[in-house]
Amino acid sequence: MTFRYRRWSMPVIVLSDEGVEYYIQSPEEALEHMQRGWTFRPGSQYQKARRALLSAMHGQIGAEEAREAFLAAAIEAGRIVMYPAYVDRLTAVSA
Predict the structure, then answer these.
(1) 42 to each of 39, 52, 63, 71, 87, how far by Cα in Å?
(2) Would you call 80 helix, strand, or coil by DSSP?
(3) Which tens digits make up the pLDDT trace of 44-72?
(4) Predicted TM-score (pTM) above 0.90
(5) What is the domain partition of the chain in residue ranges?
């Protein structure tokens, strides 16, 4: 089975239980983080993100679409880190 490894246009920064920031830069990294570092109870966006990340790895959807699903799961879990410059760039990318 061949996976397509593609970096995102910008990382998703998530916070661990210990307060460590992780810069997640691809569907592969996001899936690994969810499987190993997601120690809190997953919400409804968790399964959607897992499916999207796997689909991106198989080339069925774009990496950026999977990024948005991972971002939604991280926000739902309260693990997203938002810096002013990061928020500004998010706004510019989504506009």
Answers:
(1) 8, 15, 22, 13, 24
(2) strand
(3) 899 999 999 999 999 999 999 999 999 98
(4) no
(5) 12-94
